[in-house]
């Protein structure tokens, strides 16, 4: 794919709604990953169940989206 085509594709992708951009980004990153580790899916399932259990038990400390973004920007900005 030439530079012009890549620029057009990037511009079109940036015009997508946020949810569709996120899905596209996920698929692109996934395509770069090494072959899946057989145990990863099981470990993620266990981690998700653990987190959901904490949420259901009201023992998880949840933050809203704005707070999450502030924390991530602060963390990434400190590198």
Automatic annotation (TrEMBL):
Which superkingdom is the protein from?
Bacteria
**Which InterPro entries does UniProt cross-reference here?**
CHP02574_addiction_mod
Please give one Pfam family short name.
Unstab_antitox
- This protein is called Addiction module protein
